[in-house]
Design brief:
heterotrimer, A alpha/beta (452), B mainly alpha (368), C mainly alpha (305), B: 368 residues, mainly alpha, ABC transporter involved in vitamin B12 uptake, BtuC, two-stranded antiparallel sheet, C: 305 residues, 73% helix
């Protein structure tokens, strides 16, 4: 098994190399699918050449549809690989995935940190308090208050003509003084006392503690109007709030990143990735959008061809309008191609059975896929419809689209196929041109039993 | 359906048919016209009634937002009120005089709408891959988280008091000699027209989305997620866009709500009950159907604000209930009647009162 | 905060969780079999609690001796179980059954409607104010320890819940009915083709879910000691969350989910604050679902193509 390319650019280069070196369009390599103990497909090898029609046949329960589901990204294979134009069909871990995970991690981290440092008090300290004390709101002031909150600095504010010494969020009023100078000096004393409590054995004062107040020697015999336990609480509060903030940021970051990776991992092999790479399909038990009109069904297939974002759609931008118009024309063309041009405005669920099958084909063709997987397109059709269908499959090939077909009507298979692969109990028992397969004894045995 | 083809209907009947088809096809213009003239004709709309109708319009916007997710995309959303609340509170925080932002109405509305959409994205991104009913419980849970948060962050949201006063739109702007802020504050008809215009805008936007790439992708994912993704549509991205659009419209409705009441009211205005009422309105009216949604809201709100008080006062007038027992008052039975109505409508019209044309076609097909 | 305090909170959490799990079973069974979020289940239990309260008053259990009390409690559990079970089946017959082939959301709205009707019934039954449920069991500590206590109330929860859950598991795993229930939950059409009476199986499921809910309502009254007509929503919400957390449709999942939710609730009430409990429970739910989208014990379902 080759190493998977890490970035999508490398993958593109690989695709170009593969295309030029004559690699098959679709390369299924030792594909196995197990459901619990049941082996549905075992070590299937299958090459589909560009521009050919390849049929996958076999008795019921041979694992044909399971193989289809693996190729189209609906099931994940248990082992083996599927390559299309030389590339594995899964989303690679691109740089954008990395930055996305980091970004989500950061956002989650900030959210957690906000919860951990008590965003309510933070808001009070940074935004609301400025409004209460009546000072004009400036970014610099808000920044200063934000710093103050995390450093648990004491602040001074004015209320009713008096000066109060308060904690950073203003909830603790420590003292009230008549003039500013007294208040300032008291604030410095208190701050120093708080810092002193933090500079006990084993703690190192950081720069914020030293800023312009810590020079004062604590215990200068001036009696502080605050109880010891309040000072203790203020001293502890600073360390706690920082610790909690960092812890929240870190925990949230881990969780957010891990979550993004988990979600990405789950979605990396999904049907739309395969479809966007250029493989489209129909379903054995017709899966139309049954309450939409026939035309709308085909337009869904053309979804990616229409440019413009939400605002383009809301304001009907010229780009969007042109895109819609072009898509509509293409959709009508696709309907003409399968012979449903007159039914465009009917509700898809109300079409007769055969028309529903053809509509599914039109929808698949409209996606502009380079490989189309048809899962029993002729099921339930009468002989004349079957004949038309065989013609339709050939016309798809003539458009330059490669077809991989599951079919039980042998006359269709024998008429259209360039190559036929036969599956029995999940194992490929024969492959070759229709004529070769028809003569193969293993195939006859699989279909008719050992006695025939 | 089949009988009319055989005989030509008489002229009067055909005129009646024309009128009916006019009502059916252009109900929107007819309704808009009537609603636009109403305040000029009905003086009561200049009073308390005007405020009530404004609230009705706002709920209609909210329900249309919910309809994107539940109706078009088929995802059960039990927490739309949370986004309504986010819109209202963000509007209030950006405009109330007690905070330093004090923005104008339009700027605040745009920011709040985008914020609600962003929160929707943030919630949706990790959870939209969940199976339908798991998603329902996540949205329900998120609704509770938002309510609890709004109640508990007292410094930011004002706790149970809410935030007020939210200034009216155009405060301080004078237009043609009229102080718009004052006009909005005094005459409910200004808000009536404002929310009518926004509602009409939302209806037009929804129509356009319905008939565009995104709308088709929404319905396709609802109809058959697997087939849609096999056509190259990223189901997650489509659902995410529906989630964001729903949240944005709900947020916009929240902005109008806060502005028209000039307060956010208390967080209980954004609880599960509101979400469930809106969900019932959307389903009752008909999933994915714009007229259905509007009708659903009108019926539910009408039941609460018009029928219930009227019936109570009637019972009092007729002196049926002299002892004041709750068994004999209409409000005593309010919940049960409401519940019974939901059950009966679902029993006899499971696709809603005005099913969307697509859904109606399918059901018709199912019966034949 | 001491280790004992932590253990005590865990104990409270587990007891609460067992109660939540009993309610969650009702949600998970109905969901497993017809894919309906039975919104009315919480309010059904509220009605069960109303009946329990009326019966306690009628039988005069508040003043009875110990033997009579225990007999009375057993009787209450059986009667309320039968009441809730029968009511649940009746609702299924009248409301949900006609909607089996309707669009998926129609039964959901009907269930919401039924929940409103139940709430109104509860309002008439016990009035709009909260009512005290008499303390029938002594709250003496059974453990010879300070700081850590187990009362008869806690024990009651275990005595009732564990046998019910074991019984339910045996029923689903061993009996014909259980086999039929599992068959119907996998594929209704196929089950009916091999001769399973689907309607009867669904009715049985509703009955069992309702019976467990009725038992839960009695224990709720005895354990929490306050009931009101609005308890259905809040408790239903937690129970439904538990069912989803464990993997909806899975019976052991509902039990595990209930225990987890109970623990998270009691621990967050003790260490973070009661007022944040709701937010924390749902935040944890969202986080768990991001990493395990099918719930803790749910099976990953593969869509048939």
């Amino acid at each position: 098994m080759k190493l998977k390319p890490l970035f999508s650019k490398a993958a593109n280069a690989a695709a170009i190399r593969a295309a030029s070196s004559g690699t098959p369009l679709l390369d299924v390599d030792r594909l196995s699918v197990r459901f619990g103990g049941l082996v549905a497909v075992s070590e299937l090898d299958l090459d589909v050449a560009q521009g050919s029609i390849v049929s996958l046949i076999g008795p019921n329960g041979a694992g044909k549809t399971t193989a289809f589901n693996c190729i189209s990204g609906i099931y994940a294979p248990s082992a083996g690989s599927v390559r299309f134009e030389g590339r594995r069909l899964e989303r690679s871990f691109a740089a954008s995935t990395f930055w996305g995970a980091m970004g989500v991690g950061l956002l989650t981290g900030l959210l957690f940190a906000a919860a951990a440092v008590d965003v309510d008090r933070l808001w009070l300290a940074v935004i609301k308090r400025g409004m209460i004390t009546g000072e004009p709101f400036t970014i610099a002031g808000a920044q200063a208050r934000l710093r103050g909150y995390f450093r648990a600095e004491l602040a001074i504010d004015q209320m009713a003509g008096k000066w109060r010494v308060v904690s950073a969020d203003g909830l603790d009023v420590l003292a009230i003084k008549r003039n500013l100078a007294d208040a300032n000096s008291l604030r410095d004393d208190l701050q120093a006392a708080v810092t002193a409590r933090r500079t006990g054995p084993g703690t190192v004062p950081d720069t914020s503690d030293l800023a312009d107040v810590a020079q004062k020697i604590p215990g200068q015999s001036s009696v502080l109007p605050v109880k010891e336990d309040v000072l203790d609480r203020l001293a502890a509060g600073k360390a706690r709030i920082r610790r909690r903030g960092w812890l929240g940021l870190f925990a949230g970051w881990i969780l957010g990143t891990a979550g993004t990776i988990a979600v990405w991992q789950r979605g990396r092999r999904s049907a739309h990735v395969v479809a966007q790479a250029g493989i489209s399909r129909t379903f054995q038990n017709i899966r139309l959008f049954s309450t939409m009109t026939v035309l709308e069904n085909v337009l869904v297939g053309l979804d990616r061809s229409i440019p413009g974002g939400v605002f383009g759609m809301l304001f009907r931008s010229p780009t969007n309008r042109r895109g819609e118009k072009a898509a509509r024309e293409q959709a009508i063309e696709a309907l003409k191609f399968v012979g449903l041009a007159a039914e465009g405005n009917r509700i898809a669920g109300q079409l007769p059975y055969g028309d529903q099958r053809r509509l599914e084909i039109a929808r698949a063709v409209a996606t502009g896929a380079r490989l189309i997987l048809l899962d029993e397109p002729a099921a339930g059709m009468n002989p004349s419809e079957t004949g038309e269908l065989a013609g339709l499959v050939e016309r798809i090939r003539d458009r330059g689209v490669t077809v991989l077909l599951i079919e039980h009507h042998m006359n269709v298979v024998m008429r259209v196929s360039d190559r036929v692969a036969v599956l029995d109990h999940g194992v490929k028992i024969a492959e070759g041109t229709p004529a070769e397969v028809k003569r193969n004894e293993k195939v006859i045995e699989a279909y008719l039993g050992p006695d025939a | 359906m089949h009988s009319s083809a055989s005989s030509t209907p008489p002229a009067s009947a055909s005129r009646r048919l024309q009128l009916a088809s006019l009502l059916r096809e252009r109900w929107d213009l007819v309704a808009l016209g009537l609603l636009a003239i109403a305040p000029l004709v009905i003086p009561a709309l200049g009073g308390a009634l005007g405020g009530q109708v404004t609230t009705l319009f706002i709920y209609c916007i909210l329900a249309l937002g919910l309809n994107v997710m539940v109706g078009y995309t088929g995802l059960v959303h039990l927490g739309i009120a949370a986004f309504f609340g986010i819109g209202a509170y963000s509007m209030a925080i950006l405009t109330v005089p007690m905070y330093p932002f004090q923005m104008g109405f339009a700027a605040a509305a745009v920011i709040s709408t985008l914020l609600a959409a962003g929160v929707g994205l943030a919630l949706g991104a990790p959870t939209l891959r969940l199976r339908g009913d798991y998603l329902a419980i996540v949205t329900l849970g998120f609704g509770e988280v938002v309510k609890v948060t709004l109640r508990n962050l007292e410094q930011i949201t004002g706790g149970m008091k809410g935030l007020n006063p939210v200034p009216p739109p155009g405060a301080g702007v004078t237009l043609g000699g009229v102080d718009l802020g004052m006009a909005f504050a005094i005459d409910p008809r200004y808000f009536y027209y404002l929310s009518l215009i926004v509602l009409a805008g939302v209806v037009v936007a929804m129509r356009r989305l319905e008939n565009s790439r995104l709308g088709r992708a929404w319905v396709a994912v609802r109809e058959d997620e697997l087939a849609a993704s096999a056509m190259g549509i990223s189901a997650t991205r489509v659902k995410l866009s529906a989630f964001a659009m729903s949240s944005a419209v709900a947020g916009l409705a929240g902005c109008l709500y806060a502005a028209s009441l000039s307060t956010t009211a208390d967080p209980n205005a954004y609880d599960f009950n509101r979400s469930i009422m809106m969900l019932c309105a959307v389903i009752l009216g008909g999933l994915g159907s714009i007229p259905g949604t509007l009708l659903g809201v009108a019926i539910l709100v009408g039941f609460d604000t018009v029928l219930a008080p009227w019936a109570d006062s009637w019972i009092q007038q007729m002196n049926i209930n002299p002892t004041g027992s709750s068994l004999l008052s209409f409000s005593g039975w309010r919940l049960a009647l409401f519940g019974l109505a939901l059950v009966l409508v679902m029993r006899f019209r499971p696709a809603g009162l005005v099913p969307s044309r697509r859904l109606a076609a399918e059901l018709h097909e199912g019966q034949t | 905060m001491s280790v004992q305090f932590f253990l005590q909170q865990c104990l409270i959490g587990l007891t609460n969780g067992a109660l939540i799990a009993l309610v969650a079973l009702g949600y998970t069974m109905v969901y497993g079999i017809i894919g309906l979020i039975n919104f009315a289940h919480g309010d059904l239990i509220m009605l069960g609690a109303c009946l329990a309260l009326s019966l306690v008053t009628a039988l005069g259990l508040a003043t009875a001796g110990p033997t009579a009390t225990w007999l009375g409690i057993s009787l209450l559990i059986v009667l309320c179980g039968l009441f809730c079970g029968t009511l649940n089946v009746a609702v299924d017959r009248l409301v949900y059954k006609p909607l089996r082939s309707a669009p998926k959301l129609a039964p959901l709205v009907s269930a919401i409607g039924v929940s409103f009707i139940f709430m109104n019934m509860g309002l008439f039954w016990i009035g709009s104010a909260d009512r005290a449920f008499p303390e029938l069991l002594p709250s003496t500590n059974l453990l010879p320890m300070e700081g850590l206590q187990i009362t008869w109330k806690d024990l009651l929860v275990v005595i009732v819940v564990v046998p019910l859950m074991v019984g339910l598991t045996l029923l689903v795993q061993m009996t014909r009915l259980g086999k039929a229930m599992r068959a119907v939950s996998q594929d209704q059409t196929a089950a009916s083709l091999v001769g399973v009476d689907v309607d009867r199986v669904i009715a049985a499921t509703f009955f069992i879910g309702g019976f467990l809910g009725g038992a839960a309502s009695v224990i709720y009254g005895l354990y929490i000691n306050t009931i009101g007509f609005q308890i259905g929503f809040q408790n239903g919400l937690y129970a439904f969350t538990a069912a989803v957390l464990g993997g909806i449709g899975s019976i052991p999942g509902a039990v595990l989910g209930g225990l987890v939710i109970g623990l998270v609730r009691s621990l967050s009430s003790a260490y973070v604050g009661e007022r944040w409990t709701g937010a924390i429970v749902f935040a944890i739910l969202i986080v768990i679902l991001v990493f395990r989208p099918e719930g803790l014990l749910g099976r990953r379902t593969k869509e048939k193509v």
